[in-house]
Each structure stands twice: as structure tokens, then as C-alpha cells.
Design a protein that fits this description.
This protein has 10 helices and 11 strands. By secondary structure, the protein is an alpha/beta fold.
């Protein structure tokens, strides 16, 4: 996979706790300049995203927003208001947090009804990527989630909320693509090498939610976090460690 293809499969989410405003702006601008697939932000960052899109839009990069991220614990009316907000602001897609705690409590009806309400409301107006929590569930539970997704009308899944929740494996992608081929797969969760990304594409993945998008696309260092010092900076990745 060439650098250009890797970039075109990247999804950015520049809303980390320690981002400075100028760092967020740089991530948004660079996302459009290089032509990533999507840029996903928090609801309060939507005006900035749309401002940057107006100035740097390339006709390819989609605008996105998180909705109920990551645990999906918002009430259904709140989720519908956020969907309404996204639509009103011309957002193309949302990363939708399912009510995973309801699922883990074996209350699948609550999870389903909440999910279905957002999908029905947004139909034809938002591309919805439902967060699937593949890393934190058994195969039996994954099957139950996927079957609920299909029943509700989900067409796209985001495999996991992100890196801090665990590492995605090629086998996860293979399993979903083999057993649920109607679902488009967006990978999230510590995919940090081009080799693994290529294997995931071959296994059925379409896009990758990446903090390390520059390094994996061969265009420079990425913004990373120092949780002890509570700051973010552009660092180089060497030997499993992010270094200056």
C-alpha cells in the first residue's frame, strides 16, 4: 500500500484532552491538505471544523462528529438532538456510541431501541459508524452485537472506541468480514504499523482511525500525549516509545 493510499484511508480525531488550540487547528488543516478520508471532532469543535473545511476543503475529506462517545450512555433524546445538530451543520458522518452498558447488563432491547432511533432519524442524512467494542467482548457477544446492528440497520462499524481500550487484531477484522460481509469495517485501536494495516485491508477493513497517521503514511511525526506532564507534542516513534 503506497503512502497516498494509506493517507486516503485515515480518519483523524483531534480532540484529545491535552491538545492546544493551535494543535487542533493544525491537525484539521493538515488533514485537508493531505487528503485524509475523514476528520471526526467533538460537537463543540464542529464550527471550527466547518471553518477549516470552507478554507481548505478538497472535495474528498468528510466531516465527522462523535455522538455518545464512547459508552453511549446519553439518553436517546439527547442523541437525537446531537444528530439534529450534526445534520444542521452539514456533518457527513458520526461515530455513534452504542449503549454498551445496557448490552453488558443483558438489556439488548434498550441498546437496540436507542440505536434504531438514531439510525431512523438520520437515515439518508448521516453516515453512521456504530462503535462495536470488539476487543472487550467474547465471540458470542460479538455475534449478538453484530446481529443487533444488522437488525437496526447499521451499515458501518467502528471496531473499538480507540487505543486506550485495547489492541485490534487482524483476526477481529477477518471474523467480521467473513461472518458479516454486509458491514463496512473501520478499524480503531492501536494499529501502528503499515504492515498490520495492509493485512487488515486484505482481511476486509476500509478505513483506520489513527493518531499515528503521519508516521504510517510516511509524512512525519504525530501528536502524542505525555500523561504525567499533561501535555501533547509532535514526537517520533522509536522502539515502542514516543521520543523527541
Amino acid at each position: 500500500m503506497y503512502d497516498r493510499e494509506m493517507i486516503s484511508r485515515c480518519v483523524l480525531s483531534p480532540f484529545g484532552s491535552f491538545y492546544k488550540e493551535e494543535q487542533v487547528r493544525k491537525e484539521l488543516i493538515d488533514g485537508y491538505k493531505y487528503g485524509v478520508r475523514s476528520i471526526v471532532v467533538e460537537a463543540d469543535q464542529v464550527p471550527l471544523l466547518k471553518e477549516i473545511e470552507q478554507a481548505y476543503g478538497n472535495g474528498y475529506t468528510r466531516t465527522g462528529m462523535v455522538l455518545g462517545y464512547p459508552y453511549g450512555g446519553y439518553t436517546t433524546p439527547v442523541k437525537l438532538k446531537l444528530a439534529e445538530y450534526a445534520i444542521a451543520h452539514g456533518i457527513d458522518e458520526v461515530d455513534l456510541g452504542i449503549n454498551i452498558h445496557a448490552f453488558w447488563a443483558n438489556d439488548i432491547d434498550t441498546m437496540y431501541n436507542d440505536l434504531k432511533a438514531v439510525i431512523d432519524y438520520s437515515e439518508g442524512r448521516l453516515r453512521i459508524a456504530a462503535i462495536a467494542w470488539l476487543i472487550r467482548n467474547s465471540l458470542e457477544n460479538i455475534d449478538r452485537i453484530m446481529e443487533t446492528f444488522l437488525k437496526a440497520g447499521v451499515k458501518v462499524i467502528k471496531t473499538n472506541p480507540g487505543g486506550r481500550f485495547g489492541e485490534m487484531k487482524v483476526e477481529h477484522v477477518q471474523y467480521i468480514h467473513t461472518h458479516y460481509p454486509e458491514l463496512e469495517i473501520e478499524v480503531a485501536g492501536r494499529c501502528r504499523s503499515r504492515d498490520i494495516a495492509e493485512k487488515m485491508v486484505n482481511a476486509g477493513a476500509s478505513y483506520f482511525h489513527l493518531s499515528s497517521w503521519r508516521r504510517m503514511s510516511g509524512i512525519g511525526d504525530d501528536i502524542q500525549f505525555d500523561f504525567d506532564e499533561k501535555r501533547a507534542d509532535y514526537l517520533e516513534y522509536r522502539g515502542g516509545i514516543w521520543r523527541k
